[in-house]
Amino acid sequence: MSIIFNNVRIFMSGTFFPGQKVLVEKGKIASVGSRILKNVEKVIDCDQKYLVPGLIDAHSHLGLFENSVPVNDMAETQPEITPHLRPLDGIKMRDKGLEDARRAGISTCMVCPASELPIAGLCSILKTNGNSADVGLIVEQAGVLMTFGEQPKRNAADFEKPHGTRMGMPALIRETLMKAEDYLAAKQSKKMVKDREIDMEALLPLIRGEVPMRACAHRAEDIMTAIRIAEEFNLKIVIEYGTEAHLIADKLAEKKIPVVLGPSLMPRFRHEMSEKTFESAKILMDAGVEVALTCDYPGLPIETLRVAAAMAIQHGLDEKRALQAITETPAKILGVHERLGKIKKGYDGDLALFSGHPLDIRSKMEALVIDGDLFVFDDNLVIETN
Question: Are residues 287 and 213 in the same domain?
Answer without folding.
Answer: yes
